[in-house]
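Hello,

I think I submitted the nicotinamide-adenine-dinucleotide job twice by accident. Can you confirm which output corresponds to this input? Input:
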Amino acid sequence: MAMAGLAVQIYNAGGFCRVVSTKPMPGTQWIRALTNVGCRVEVCIENKTILSVEDIISLIGSRCDGVIGQLTEDWGETLFATLKKAGGHAYSNMAVGYNNVDVEAATRHGIAVGNTPGVLTETTAELAAALTLSAARRVVEADDFMRAGKYEGWLPSLFVGNLLKGQTLGIIGAGRIGTAYARMMIEGFKMNVIYYDLFQSTRLENFVTAYGEFLKTQGEAPVYWQRATSPEEVLKEADVISLHPILDKTTYHLINKERLSLMKKDAVLVNASRGPVIDETALVEHLKANPMFRAGLDVFEDEPFMKPGLAELPNVVVVPHIASASKWTREGMATLAALNVAGKVKGYPVWSNPNNIAPFLDEHSQPPAACPSIVNAKALGLTVSDGSAQQKL
Ligand SMILES: NC(=O)c1ccc[n+]([C@@H]2O[C@H](COP(=O)([O-])OP(=O)(O)OC[C@H]3O[C@@H](n4cnc5c(N)ncnc54)[C@H](O)[C@@H]3O)[C@@H](O)[C@H]2O)c1
Ligand SMILES: O=C(O)[C@H](O)CO
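Support: Only one job matched these inputs. Its output is below.
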């Protein structure tokens, strides 16, 4: 059906309030989360990858209670003013990162901003691990070589890469994903870790200490952790560096020409956070000048584009922002985003622990009567639930 110029699919047409999703999202649990509380759901099915602000204004129309949007959209003053005027009070990104959202503008208009933490932690960490291995062991280069029919037989020096075992892992941004990735690499490859974050990660430190003790009981060399006081310390010491901070003013171009020059010549740099955390032009130059330096990138500074020269370089592995792309995670992200909006529409409190969103994802029981994660809850003075799963939708 065509509404306001853009094609939409409608669920529960007679619902008491109207919620728009700017994209079709995986699974059906998210649609039930909204229709179960009486929402009419309109899903934009227009065949256009990224909707413009004008497109979204037309989707919001003259009456709209809440919107679920995507990280590719520019959620700023214009859209929040439009949503407010249409009677809206809830927006959720279908993503944990919300650097595409002007949260201050939303707060000024009294609109709650939701995100989807937790459900993508392991999936994203696994892709960062895949990029690390691909870059360190030159998997994509070797695959290209095979397919091109260039393989003439085993050679002692064919595609020699880096061994991870016993090397030092560097983490910048040791939050949910950074810690999950570190645990995979430490347990899998017995790497030592040095990390930099604004906050101490006792979870990571305790894990490494306990795992080191376990290794000792097995007669193996223990692993160690170190908390760095600057990103520079991590860059100088680590053999593999993976970036997992949020994108904000403090992390924009955190990896620049000067900091790249501090890294080991044969280091591996992985980014599954946000593209602008790296000055990508500087990275292209660095990769050109240091053929043994390798990178694995899921995100890019000017998505969907790559900086000139990047695509031609053999010492970089590039994938199109797929770190959270597992079926379970994408369906879970959609469900959390829908429950953020459904909960706000119903006037529910905000879940007390966005690091424990599991109760919202069980398809076989009713989710708690709460919004799973609202980033401006405090600024809006929203009530926080006591965390008991007794209250049900
Ligand atoms: N590529 C993908 O598909 C994908 C998937 C999920 C998340 N992400 C990105 O990963 C980010 C992290 O997600 P998360 O769930 O781990 O979030 P999180 O909030 O748990 O972790 C972010 C960490 O970054 C730290 N940090 C903030 N500013 C910093 C700075 N200047 N220097 C060092 N550390 C700093 C924070 O203290 C926090 O520990 C998201 O914001 C998102 O942008 C990308
Ligand atoms: O921030 C996020 O959630 C991701 O980039 C989506 O995969």
